[in-house]
Amino acid sequence: MNFHLSNFTDVSSVVDAVRNISHLGGATNTTGGLRRMRLEIFNRANGDRPDVPNVAVLITDGVPTREVDGLDDEVMRIKNDSIRIVVVGITSAVSQRWICKCGALFDTNAILISHSLFSDSLL
């Protein structure tokens, strides 16, 4: 993934880039994704601005299946870096319980969207 904030100058280009991120399928590595976000996206070398709050949207189609034991530690690092996360669950594999846990874990908003709104072709 090459998603550096310095590559974008307006909201439209960010939205286009997000829409073009391909879904790789397979296991759900929430910990690895969050670590990559913290280290590669939200850093000054890649366009992060220290005077602008960092907010990320974590869109998940399931529960973590890889690096699960490291999730709490990564979340603490993210909190220490003052990155705010909004969690959105989008498939029937995401339970209300998991979304509530995410909200508590991240001290943030967590939303479960009915999977009927999404087709497999969107994922």
Q: Mind explaining what this structure looks like?
A:
It is built from four helices and three strands; from the N terminus they run ααβαβαβ. The chain is an alpha/beta fold. The protein has a single domain, classed as von Willebrand factor, type A domain (Rossmann fold, 3-Layer(aba) Sandwich). Helix 2 packs parallel to helix 3. The longest helix has 12 residues, at 30-41.
Low-confidence parts lasting 5 or more residues at pLDDT below 50?
Answer: 116-123
Strand content: 5-15%
* CATH fold name: Rossmann fold
CATH superfamily grouping: von Willebrand factor, type A domain
The major pleated sheet works out as: 3 strands, parallel
Question: Rg to the nearest angstrom?
Answer: 15 Å
CATH architecture identity: 3-Layer(aba) Sandwich
SSE order, one letter for each helix or strand? HHEHEHE
- Mean pLDDT over the residues: 76
Strands, count: 3
State the helix count.
4
The secondary structure category is alpha/beta
What percentage of residues falls in helices of 4 or more residues? Answer: 25-40%
Distance between the termini: 17 Å
Number of domains: 1
Q: Overall 3D geometry?
A: globular
Q: What is the class in the CATH system?
A: Alpha Beta
Biggest sheet strand order reads 1-2-3
